[in-house]
Amino acid sequence: MINVFIKIKRNNGKCSYYETFLFKGDINSSIASVLEEINSKERLINILGNHASPILWECGCLQKKCGACAMVINGVPSLACSTFLKDISNKDKIVTIEPLSKFPIVKDLIVDRENIFKKMVENHLWLEKTAKINLNIIDSEYQSSKCLMCGCCLEICPNFSEKSEFLGALGMVNIFKLINQSPNNDHKNKIINNYNKNYYDKCGKSLSCHHVCPINLPIEEMLINSNRIIVWGKKL
Question: Which SUPFAM superfamilies does UniProt cross-reference here (predicted)?
């Protein structure tokens, strides 16, 4: 058993504030389990002894398959379901949990990530015809298809903002898959133009995204290969 202070950045629709709760439980617990345990109390009390409303947060599979539980944990964009107390607890036994800051707050730890999908539509990131398969890079295409669209890579990126046209690593990963599967036509040309304008020209190459991806996508490799195909016009 371990005692840990869970400091939550909350939002009531009018303002943001921090509220801290005491968690008593297993050090092997995930942050998702911690939030569930705190909310399970019949009467939720913070460390000041005041009554508190349940913490609002999103989850889906709780198996690192959907990306819904993305949030900032001790300053690092992470998935609550795959982040464990044993790996992040510090000597002060304080864990700080905040919502992703690059997206509009709905309430507490819930944010609106609709802008991700709007940008995909604006940049024509879909297949118009049956995908063509290149067996030489099928493993890389499979890896790119595993992207959870969680937004962790966008949260850590110094070049991405909600109002920016920059697509971030999330957009690049999806373009990498599409550019290899799309036949040569006007639609593919639009994807190429949008990659150059809204990704290549705006990426600072900090590669922070590579280090926070919760499923460890080979983002650096996909970036190199995307530039090789789209910018330099070479084959893989």
Answer: 2Fe-2S ferredoxin-like (SSF54292), alpha-helical ferredoxin (SSF46548)
Q: At what angle do helices 114-122 and 168-181 cross, to 10 degrees?
A: 40
pLDDT of residue 137: 80
> What is the rounded CA–CA span in Å between residue 83 and residue 33?
10
Alpha carbon distance, N-terminus to C-terminus of the chain: 52
Q: Are 70 and 77 in contact (CB under 8 A)?
A: yes
CATH 3.10.20.30 fits domain 2-111: yes
User: Homologous superfamily of 113-231 in CATH?
Assistant: Alpha-helical ferredoxin (1.10.1060.10)
SS (H, E, C) the chain: CEEEEEEEEEECCCCEEEEEEEEEECCCCEHHHHHHHHHCCCCCECCCCCECCCCCCCCCCCCCCCCCCEEEECCEEEEHHHCEHHHHCCCCCEEEEECCCCCCEEECCEECCHHHHHHHHHCCCCCCCCCCCCCCCHHHHHHHCCCCCCCHHHHHCCCCCCCCCCCHHHHHHHHHHHHHHCCCCHHHHHHHHHHHHHHHCCCCCCCHHHHHCCCCCCHHHHHHHHHHHHHCCCCC
C-beta separation of 89 from 83 below 8 A: no
| φ/ψ of residue 123, rounded to 5 | -100, 15
**Largest interatomic CA distance in the chain:** 64
User: Which sequence spans correspond to the domains of the chain?
Assistant: 2-111, 113-231
Q: Provide the CA 183 distance to its chain's centre, in angstroms.
A: 30
